[in-house]
Amino acid sequence: MHPRHATRVLAVGLLAGTAVLAAPAIAQAPTGAPAASPAASSAPAAAARTADTILVNGKIVTVDDRFTIVPALAIAGERIVATGSTADVEALKTPQTRVIDLGGKTVIPGLIDNHAHYMRAAEYWDREVRLDGITSRQEALAMIAAKAKASQPGELVLSLGGWSEEQFTDQPGGFTKAELDAAAPNNPVVLQVIYFRIYANSLALKALGVTAETPDPRNGKIEKDANGQPTGVLNGGGAVAWTLGRLGEVAKERSVENARALMRDLNRMGITAYQEMGGRAFNAGHLEAFRTVWERKQMTVRAFYNIWQEPTSAEGVDKALAVIAGLKPFQGDDWLDHTGYGETVYFPLHDNLLARGASPTPENMAQWRRIAQAVADKGMHLNVHAQLRGTIEAFLTEIEAINAVKPIKGLRWTMSHGDQLEPQDIARMKRLGMHVQLHSRPTVQGALMLKVHGDRTYAMPPLRLVQDSGIPWGLGSDATAVTPVNPFYTLHWAVTGEMVGGRKVLKETITREEALIAHTRSNAAFLFQDGNLGSLAPGKYADLVVLDRDYLTVPASQIKDLKPVMTMVGGKVVHETK
């Protein structure tokens, strides 16, 4: 029967059965967050006479400015029209209203990733084996073998990052050519480790044209054995770029379907919106695939993108300035829109988390300033990639000079990553009206960071310092190459300080309430969607996630294992576990 012809009662995550619409006592909020009360609850909005959907009998964590927790919520069209008591919400019910009985389950706002590279990743999404969160090397090999078995002979089996050798607890380390040949005897296999290494099997080396005589790529090295034969390991950023540049083009329609598939996977993990940051080798085709999905009204994740160019010389900057002059943000809608410029401004100053330091030259800073000044003159938002002390300080000095000429307050200029931020940096940023994005790269890079930065790693990034400073900030991933995609890995790391595999790599942790706010309500600001997203409040879009367990009470070690049983975007169910 069609939902508009009869009231529907659904038990989330349960098989067929009778759902009972009992109104439970309101769940208590965690320490430091107020519980729901009649005063804190939102009565049905005056303009809302009826609801299309209501959620009852749950623990709805609204993440509003009081962190209110209520048992029920009502939706009309794409937006929330009421939160509060079961009686208040059921007053909006009609015979056509869909009723979802939560059965006591916890609901949180849809998770927003403030910094990711999904459009680029979508191109080969159907070929990927994501090793995110896998702590067994043997299990990783079994996944590669399963993907190969499910593929046609000769089809590529690929992993474009999101993992590291250090996350394996049974046998840390990479993969040999022989192991990958055994796992996928009929398929080329290419495994990317962050941005610095490729593991390839024999068929992949053949497809790439790698022989004993192949010269090393620029800024890369093809490793060879004692007999001069390629081992299957290609080291260095140049080798990674060289390899990826030979994967071949993907037909447009396949790219479009891969974009839809990626969004479905993001929904399955609880992501309902994100900010796209382009990335290395990003091209117009990556954006076009998402734009086609948008034109077909098939979006299930809200995507807000920055324009990122990669000038490496003064001539490249000249070309970038011409592009900036023609940019016109905010011409889309609340599903797909252009928000600004960045994260990279001038590529020679794109610092490396695993480097010991950064020393920007005056010549490079002059080129950086040309672009940043043009963005300010255009009145646009800028996102600045900065990780290490040298770049953080140099960029802030230039931004202060730009602000003296063209004030940037209100444009939400943002520093991304900020791994070595210190109190004096935050004070400067607050005076400029800047924001901060912090990211969960230590989930796979933490052990490597300890080798490079020693004990300083335990405050990289300084979550507690930034949280306590009062500067506007948010939590994201920087997926897919340098971190896992799953936002619950990010939340787990922020609360426990542990990387994948359990090693402690961060001591400046935050509470689970602070982490959830940073991954929802706070991140709406980076999308310029404060009034639409980030909390479950009347007037905002009904973007929400129903969890299999309670985020606020499960042991901290289990946060990474939480699973959405239902995800809604704009009041529409886009993922549901049957």
From TrEMBL:
**Which ranges carry the Amidohydrolase domain?**
98-575
One molecular function GO term is: hydrolase activity
Signal peptide interval = 1-29
Q: Which domain of life is it from?
A: Bacteria
Read off the CDD domains from this record: YtcJ_like
Query: What Pfam families has UniProt attached to this entry?
Result: Amidohydro_3 (PF07969)
Stated EC number for the protein is 3.5.-.-
Which keywords fit this entry according to its UniProt record?
Answer: Hydrolase, Signal
Question: What SUPFAM superfamilies does the entry give?
Answer: Composite domain of metallo-dependent hydrolases, Metallo-dependent hydrolases
Q: Which Gene3D superfamilies match?
A: 3.10.310.70, Metal-dependent hydrolases, Urease, subunit C, domain 1
- Show the PANTHER family listed in the entry: IMIDAZOLONEPROPIONASE, PERIPLASMIC PROTEIN
The name this protein carries in UniProt is Amidohydrolase
